[in-house]
Amino acid sequence: MSFAFLRTPLRRAVVQRSLPRAELRNQFRSSAIRRYTTAESSSNPPPPPKSNTALFVGIGAVVAAGGVAYYVFSDSDTVKSGTQIAKVKANFVPTKDDYQKVYNRISELLDADDYDDGSYGPVLVRLAWHSSGTYDKDTKTGGSNYATMRFEPESLHGANAGLHVARELMEKVKAEFPWISYGDLWTLGGVCALQEMGGPKIPWRPGRIDGTATEATPDGRLPDASQGGDHLRNIFYRMGFNDQEIVALSGAHALGRCHPDRSGFEGPWTFSPITLTNDFYKLLFDEKWVWRKWNGPKQLQDKKTQSLMMLPTDYVLVQDKSFKKYAKAYADDQDLFFKDFSNVVSRLFELGVPTQQFVTPEPWIMKNLDE
Question: Where is the Plant heme peroxidase family profile domain (predicted)?
């Protein structure tokens, strides 16, 4: 796709430090299992890993002579990591270079010969998406700020099934960089995955804090792939997005695949599921789509190869007049899609985070591993 925030004392720290890879797998592997959707569900997902529930983040950059001043939010209810408490007391404030090291480490973990199509990239995008897409602009609850998918029952919501894979992978990075909040880690993981899979640069900045189970969001805030246009608008308008942005965000379905044991749906959207392109839109217009005859939920398949799928929420993009004009524009122009996608994903990953928490007024551009 909860704001009892700012109940925390402020601590000030001054920073005096100055501010690939990716051999993209363009070839579709018919023997691989691609799995990614915003509607995955599973009957028996493993329990979420126990969280350190740590809170440490530099906030509200103030440019000053000789350095940059940052505010650090600390909350006695949520700061439980001894490592992070020690770093806060020592006035450790991570710089952009520190976050770049985290990005690089995530990038090194993307390759996975024994998982899906050989990459954890799509599932990391889905983790970042689902941890952010719970935002409600009216109640100002949800979003990426508290990383509440670590807790039940949110971790067990049908739309989050299978994301234990991504969360467990991120625990490896968290162990190496215990100072980073889960919200920053997960969204940075999404940025890394998108950029390393051939996508555009995604502006990103840290500042999210870790909350508790009391901030967990209710079920039903993420898209239900079996629904139509009205449902999409209800879900995305609640977050603050418009029709054009709905269509742009849908382009993430160029990546990954659905699992029968999670959402019930099956198959990939494109022939290059670990490379971000505008193929999702091109295939919607260029292929003949028919309803699949099988025992699973209602989904479409391409008539020619019967190896690709589209969800009902995907197909509505070429049926709804407003959605269709944007989908056609993206099908015709990948550069336009990348530009709009970059902008809206950056906004998505910041949903629910108070502006004053961010360490910098302007988002950063993280380097790819091979840069």
Answer: 87-371
Domain ranges of the chain: 10-357
Find the catalytic residue in 129, 130, 157, 186.
Answer: 130
Q: Any catalytic annotation for residue 269?
A: yes
Residue with tokens 């051999």: 23
- The low-confidence residues of the chain, meaning pLDDT below 50, are 1-83, 86
What does residue 63 show for φ and ψ, rounded to 5 degrees?
Answer: -70, 130
Q: 1-29: per-residue pLDDT in tens?
A: 443 333 333 333 333 333 344 444 444 33
CATH topology of domain 10-357: Peroxidase; domain 1 (1.10.520)
Length of the chain: 371
pLDDT per residue as tens digits for the range 191-209: 999 999 999 999 999 999 9
Question: What number of helices (H) and strands (E) belong to the chain?
Answer: 11, 8
Contact indicator for 172, 68 with CB cutoff of 8 Å: no
The CA distance from 371 to 61, in Å, is 26
- Of 129, 204, 269, 364, the catalytic one is 269
Place of tokens 């659905």: 258
Neighbour order of strands in the sheet with 300-302: 289-291, 300-302, 309-310
Instruction: Using alpha carbons, select from 31, 32, 37, 29 the residue that is nearest to residue 261.
Output: 37
**329: number of Cβ within 10 Å:** 17
Helix (H, G, I), strand (E, B), or coil: what is residue 171? helix
Does residue 186 have an active-site annotation? no
Rounded to the nearest 10°, the torsion over CA 83, 167, 187, 153 is: -100
